[in-house]
Every structure is written in C-alpha cells, then in structure tokens.
Amino acid sequence: xxxxxxxxxxxxxxxxxxxxxxxxxxxxxxxxxxxxxxxxxxxxxxxxxxxxxxxxxxxxxxxxxxxxxxxxxxxxxxxxxxxxxxxxxxxxxxxxxxxxxxxxxxxxxxxxxxxxxxxxxxxxxxxxxxxxxxxxxxxxxxxxxxxxxxxxxxxxxxxxxxxxxxxxxxxxxxxxxxxxxxxxxxxxxxxxxxxxxxxxxxxxxxxxxxxxxxxxxxxxxxxxxxxxxxxxxxxxxxxxxxxxxxxxxxxxxxxxxxxxxxxxxxxxxxxxxxxxxxxxxxxxxxxxxxxxxxxxxxxxxxxxxxxxxxxxxxxxxxxxxxxxxxxxxxxxxxxxxxx
Length: 339
Ligand SMILES: [Mn+2]
What we know:
inorganic pyrophosphatase (n-terminal core); six-stranded mixed β-sheet; DDH domain-containing protein; DHH_sf; Oligoribo/pAp-PDE_c-di-AMP_PDE
C-alpha cells in the first residue's frame, strides 16, 4: 500500500479528471465499500461495476454479499469471489469514512497490492486512505458524487445503473426528508430519472424491507424504545443479538426520526459473543443537534443528523455520556439565541 497523499483540496473538476485518467489506464479494478453496506454503498459499488464493465475492465467487488442491502442488486457477475491471485492495478473505495469499517479483509488485501488507490467519499475527513482521496461532504450521498463523475465521463448509463445511483441518493437522504433537496441534487435526479420509472423503483427500494426477518426483527426490537422526554431523547438497547444482518440499528434509528416526540435517538446493539456496542445515532431536522460531534467523542464518524460509533464501554456509561453531550449542545444553542 502506498503512503497516503493529501488530495482533499482537489476541486471536483480536477478530481474527476484524475479519476477518469486512472480508470482509462487501468485493466483490473477492485471496488471496495464498507462493512454492513447500506444502499448508498451498494448503489455506488453496483453502478461503478456496470460503468467499468462497459469500459471493458476486469472488475471485481470485495464483499461477502451476505448483507441484505445486496438483495436487490446482486447478480452472479457482481458477486464473483475475489481470489488472492486477482492483482488489481486500480482500487476504488467508496462511502466508508473510517478505514476500520472497510469491508472485511480489505486492508489485508491492500497490503499485498501495488495498486493505485482512490477513495471517493461524502463523509467528513476521518481516516480515509489512498493515493487520491476525493471527499465532498457537502453532498449527501456517495451515489450523487458518482453520478456527477459518470456524467463528466460521458458514460451512457443503463437503466440498472441509473436506478442503483438514485437508490443510494434516496436512501442516504431519507428521500430528502433528512436533507434539503438542492437544485444541484434535483438536476442529478432529473438526469438519472430518464424513463420516470428509475425514481419510482429507487424510492420503493429505499423504503422496502428485503426480508420478512428484517422487518420482524425491527418490530421486535423497536418495542424496547424508551424516551427521556426532558431531552426528547429516544433510546434502544439491544443485548446479545443473534443472527444479525447489520441493518438493525440504522433501520430503527432512521425510522425513529419520523416520530415527532423524538429529537434525537441512540440505538445500541451488542452482538452475542462480542465485547463492544455498535451505536447508531440520529437527530431530527428541527433539533439542531449535531450527532457527528457526539459520534466523534467515541472516535466514530458520520454526518450532522446521522452518525455511528463503536464502544466497549458499558451501555449505562455510553448513554450517560451521550445525554451529557446532547445537553451541552442544547444549552449552547440556547445561549446563542439569548445573546
Ligand atoms: Mn453514504
């Protein structure tokens, strides 16, 4: 693996030009996302796969494809196993923010490779790595950045690719319930929604449950939800979970934001046999609470209204700390209004 270079200050034009050049020169490309991929990550990998295929690259995706987000996009071509003998000359990594959450085995695989590494991300600078790191955290999904990249590459996107990109855009923005729909995003949507069916399909996918089990598990654990009304703070603690597919914490926390009483929500999950909690944290539009700052305390990452972290602290300690940090933010924002 090569040393990390600071390339964060690239303009979109410059970054897209460099990325396009690297793609042009490459023959074998490996695509990598984050563990427990969501629809933005899967949409990014799937669309990149098809784009690179159309340019006649030998392209593979590093994943075990077990996560339910793959259900709607998986095809045998994409889910081909990456053998140790596959020596890519280009590795493209997307949507992960923290290198520790990269797809299992990614770092080990990269250590042995001499490939040029590109990271494309819409998460704030955390520990992304690569020879070329392009981050635009003003854009609310990786799929939107990739759409713009593919437009600039003048790729003739297929309906499948356009639907995958739209699905990621709609997923990460809660169909623009979490974030404002800017003119820039709207223009991207219009270009992707060529037949009119892509948006409908993507909107349906981003609201769908892939498996009955996912929905049953969601319903079961959502009953654990409690609320601290003084803070508008929702809380779900899941202990010793068996048979997890990874999306439980985010599906509960994403849905909770549509409960008007809840201004912020923390979902903690400990998988049976593991010693740490995985946490998902969200805040509502009007709360003004920046949950990425709370996640950062635990060395996690994310966005203003959606973030996550891991911690080996006890649930009692995590909850107390999160509440304290929320309270501080509320206090500070009230102070500002009074001034
Ligand atoms: Mn994303």
